[in-house]
Design a protein that fits this description.
Keywords: Membrane, Transmembrane, Transmembrane helix. By secondary structure, the chain is mainly alpha-helical. The protein has 13 helices and no strands.
């Protein structure tokens, strides 16, 4: 029983690894907005499966739902940061990116508070707690169609300059936005001469060795600093 529940908990991370690994390919092929919409559907399906697990008397449904939630979260982390950053005006871009981390932390806190026995962590309400992750996904699924595709994606990957201008006007209002379009064109020209490294190539590349060491040490020490216990 301990082994089964350990797998149920840890399979979220395995799904997250798979989701984040495929995010780059999916965003280039389908665009960030479409990927986010499909990702919301995946999260809603996962929440529904976990929410119905008690009625069906199936712990396997919790296992499957947790894995799907992990895949969805793994896709969402890079997708959300990129989309929010790309649709924000230049002067608000740093602020918009920082709000992502704030709401991730806030969501974890709300989830832990809601999981207390006095709230949704009781014997009868825990299926609602498991299914609650589908609520934010549903809100985004309803509201996201009113937003345009990312302007850099339209210009850099689709070559749709008119679509890019239309998206910029919809996001930032009427005005002269040629400077932002020129910046996207410069980035596109730079990317043509830049090789995109795979994970294995990144590990082997000597020029990025120290940066990689710093990231690995920081990530490991965050897990060991006691924040999870807090």
């Amino acid at each position: 029983l301990l082994f089964l529940w350990s797998i149920t908990v840890s399979i979220f991370g395995i799904g997250g690894l798979l989701g984040s690994s495929g995010s780059r390919y999916l965003t280039v092929k389908y665009g960030k907005k479409k990927c986010l919409l499909c990702n919301n559907l995946l999260m809603i399906v996962a929440a529904s499966i976990m929410g119905c697990s008690k009625i069906a008397q199936s712990f396997e449904m919790i296992l499957i739902g947790r894995f799907m939630c992990g895949v969805s979260a793994g896709l969402c982390v890079p997708l959300h940061h990129q989309y929010v950053g790309e649709i924000s005006p230049r002067k608000l871009r740093g602020f918009a990116n920082s709000t992502s981390s704030f709401f991730w932390s806030l969501g974890k806190a709300v989830g832990q508070i809601s999981g207390q026995r006095e709230l949704l962590g009781s014997q009868y309400l825990w299926p609602m707690l498991m299914a609650s992750c589908g609520l934010p996904a549903l809100v985004q699924l309803i509201t996201l169609p009113f937003f345009p595709e990312s302007p850099p994606y339209l210009l850099m990957h689709k070559g749709d300059q008119e679509g890019c201008k239309k998206a910029i006007r919809q996001l930032w209002g009427e005005g002269h936005h040629q400077a932002e379009i020129d910046d996207i064109m410069k980035e596109k020209a730079t990317m043509k001469n830049t090789k995109i490294l795979s994970v294995l190539e990144l590990i082997k590349e000597p020029a990025f060795r120290w940066q990689l060491y710093v990231i690995v040490i920081l990530t490991a020490t965050v897990q060991l600093c006691g924040i999870n216990a807090v």
